[in-house]
């Protein structure tokens, strides 16, 4: 990847800046597996049973693997161009001060080529799926002072109004290779050409209005209203693809059978449309004079989204056939033949909560102490994902809704700067309990059938120390040098919540457990 940028003073008060970033990744993974050249599973099993594993096959080799295994490849190439141009400065001046303007344009182009081919890699005619998306936007934001400290008004130190608007335009298109299938093996045998999908285009103009009011130096009120526009990703809006799943473990409530193999319809859905949102934020900031260097902020937020892009698992579809029965196809015997898990637009989402932040800095007998505390309380995360089911609050639930938040989260840290050389710190993260609702995952991980499983509260601790190094060791050529040492997850709490065949690892923990790190930082 590469990036470049500039900053230019158009006038003493106007600044123009621009950035360009380019990145490209090329990933090729080749791996062995029992592939399509295997004529019959029974033949594979028969020859496998005949192997004498006590024999030294380094001198008496067997060709069973070369006969039945092939080497497919997964290849993905992605290129991203990201450009922006911004300008800031006073648009006008009036009685309360300068009216500031921030404006800019942005453009992003994303190209992707990739395939996961089941055939052998020595088939040179296999073609990648090509996708391209572009996103262009322009924005402007005014900060308008209505009251300034220079006016010396009683009970009103400052009042600022923010007005902003953003226009976005998004387009995506793709070229998908088409093949002729071999009647016997059902695998691709001949490249027929590309199928081009017309570009899907969306655009929107979203506003924002807000204010900040400070009656004095110790108190400030703030509030804002804004609208948002979230476009589908390239993968979400691409053509759907099908693949054969052969190692599934799904429960079919209709037949009572375990579904081990089926055709999975996944990938994208060209019919989905962008998400939109409306947000309200209101808060207060306290900096009391009787406690110097203390800052407390409390903010309330409410977000309403519509047209949410959602996805659901194959088991969730089977468990809710009343709502998603059309996504399941069955064969003549009534068994599951295919399941469609492509994304779709759900109805809406509403969430609200409170964010609190506290910081305090003071001198102590052992040095300068800096304390920080953050706390988030989520009141609701109500989502209705289909017309048949009522809206449901997913706060503290994993499995029923992707990215559902916890009821409570908190973090705290203390940093002690003992002197000009040494610094010490401690940090902790708290996650409230949550419930798993994916019955298939619970059964798979615990061996016991259950609809829900509660995961207890979790707390993790980190410690660190820093030391500035004497500059004479570096010949005086550096501005500063600092050595750092720390321990993450001090008490090795990786939180396996139950004893089972596989164990359940909390989504907020780290399977590596306690980690030590040492770093050296130079500034010059």
Mean pLDDT equals: 84
**Low-confidence runs of at least 5 consecutive residues:** 117-122, 497-502
Tally of extended strands? 31
Major sheet: 18 strands, antiparallel
Class inferred from helices and paired strands = mainly beta
Rg from Cα? 30 Å
Tally of alpha and pi helices: 6
User: What oligomerization state is this entry in?
Assistant: single chain
Spatial gap, N to C terminus: 24 Å
User: Beta-sheet strand percentage?
Assistant: over 45%
- What is the helix fraction of residues, given as a range? under 10%
Shape: globular
Characteristic key phrases:
18-stranded antiparallel β-sheet; four-stranded mixed β-sheet; 6 helices; 524 residues; mainly beta; globular
Question: Can you walk me through this structure?
Answer:
β9 and β10 (219-230) form a beta hairpin. The chain has a domain at 32-70. The protein has helices at residues 41-49, 64-68, 234-237, 314-319, 321-324, 439-446; strands at residues 2-9, 15-30, 33-34, 69-70, 73-94, 97-117, 129-147, 158-181, 188-216, 219-230, 240-245, 250-251, 258-259, 262-267, 275-286, 294-306, 309-310, 328-330, 336-340, 344-345, 348-364, 367-384, 392-393, 397-398, 408-417, 422-431, 434-436, 453-455, 458-468, 480-488, 515-523. The two termini are 24 Å apart. It is mainly beta. The radius of gyration is 30 Å and the shape is globular. 7% of the residues lie in helices and 58% in strands. The strands form six sheets. It has an 18-stranded antiparallel beta sheet that branches. A four-stranded mixed beta sheet has the order 11-14-19-18. It has a three-stranded mixed beta sheet with strand order 24-27-28, with no helix packed on it. The chain has six helices and 31 strands.
């Amino acid at each position: 990847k590469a990036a470049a940028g500039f900053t230019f003073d158009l006038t003493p008060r106007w600044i123009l800046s621009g950035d360009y970033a380019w990145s490209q990744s090329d990933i090729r993974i080749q791996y062995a597996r029992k592939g399509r050249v295997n004529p019959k599973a029974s033949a594979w099993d028969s020859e496998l049973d005949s192997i004498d594993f006590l024999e030294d096959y380094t001198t008496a080799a067997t060709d069973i693997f070369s006969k039945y295994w092939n080497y497919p490849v997964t290849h993905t190439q992605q290129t991203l161009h990201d450009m922006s141009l911004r300008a800031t400065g006073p648009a006008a001046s009036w009685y309360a001060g300068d009216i500031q303007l921030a404006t800019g344009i942005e453009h992003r182009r994303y190209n992707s080529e990739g395939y996961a081919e089941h055939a052998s890699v020595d088939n040179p005619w296999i073609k990648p799926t090509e996708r391209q998306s572009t996103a262009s936007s322009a924005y402007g934001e005014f900060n308008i002072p209505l009251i300034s400290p220079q006016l010396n008004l009683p009970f009103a130190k400052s009042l600022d109004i923010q007005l902003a608007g953003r226009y976005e335009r998004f387009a995506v298109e793709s070229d998908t290779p088409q093949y002729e299938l071999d009647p016997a093996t059902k695998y691709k045998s001949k490249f027929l050409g590309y199928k081009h999908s017309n570009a899907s285009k969306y655009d929107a103009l979203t506003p924002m209005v807000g204010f900040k009011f400070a009656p004095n130096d110790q108190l400030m009120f703030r509030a804002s209203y804004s609208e948002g526009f979230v476009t589908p990703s390239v993968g979400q809006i691409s053509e759907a693809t099908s693949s054969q799943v052969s190692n599934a473990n799904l429960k079919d409530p209709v037949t009572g059978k375990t579904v081990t193999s089926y055709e999975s319809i996944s990938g994208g859905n060209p019919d989905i449309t962008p998400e939109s949102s409306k947000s309200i934020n209101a808060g207060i900031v306290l900096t009391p004079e009787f406690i110097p260097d203390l800052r407390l902020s409390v903010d309330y937020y409410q977000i309403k989204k519509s047209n949410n892009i959602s996805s659901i698992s194959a088991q969730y579809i089977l468990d809710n056939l009343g709502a998603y029965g059309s996504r399941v196809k069955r064969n003549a015997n009534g068994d599951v033949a295919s399941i469609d898990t492509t994304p779709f637009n759900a109805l809406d989402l509403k969430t609200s909560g409170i964010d609190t932040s506290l910081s305090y800095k003071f001198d102590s007998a052992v040095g300068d102490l800096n304390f920080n505390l953050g706390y988030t309380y989520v009141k609701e995360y109500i989502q209705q994902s289909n017309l048949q089911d009522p809206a449901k609050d997913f706060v503290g639930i994993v499995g029923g809704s992707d990215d559902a938040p916890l009821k409570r989260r908190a973090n705290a840290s203390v940093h002690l700067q003992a002197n000009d050389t040494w610094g010490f710190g401690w940090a902790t993260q708290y996650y409230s309990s949550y419930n798993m609702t994916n019955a298939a995952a619970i059964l798979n991980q615990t061996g016991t059938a259950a609809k829900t499983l509660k995961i207890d509260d979790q707390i993790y601790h980190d410690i660190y120390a820093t030391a500035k190094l004497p500059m004479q060791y570096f010949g005086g050529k550096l501005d500063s040098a600092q050595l750092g040492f720390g321990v993450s997850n001090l008490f090795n709490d990786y939180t396996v919540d139950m004893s089972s065949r596989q164990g359940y690892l909390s989504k907020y923990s780290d399977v590596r457990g306690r980690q030590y790190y040492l770093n050296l930082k130079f500034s010059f």
